[in-house]
Design a protein that fits this description.
CATH class: Alpha Beta
Shape: globular
Largest sheet: 3 strands, antiparallel
Radius of gyration: 13 Å
CATH topology: Ribosomal Protein L30, Chain: A
Structural class: alpha+beta
Number of domains: 1
Number of helices: 3
Order of helices and strands: HEHEHE
Strand order of the largest sheet: 2-1-3
CATH superfamily: Ribosomal protein L30/L7
Length: about 80
Amino acid sequence: MSAAAQASEQSTSGWLRVTQVKSAIGTKPKHRGTLRALGLRGIGRTNVLPDRPEIRGMLARVPHLVDVKPATQDEKG
């Protein structure tokens, strides 16, 4: 299977719904940058992201600030 086919298969297989649940005020600059890279700009903001190792690594850096759940079929867009 080609790399492009694997990437397209992976992009449709798993998605995560990430919601910011705690403020980034007073956190380390790297944590604030990670939230921005995840597309989160404030408490209660949600973003649907592909379930990839890069995203999982970013989520591992800020587990105390976010809530992660699998995305439903409708949210994948």
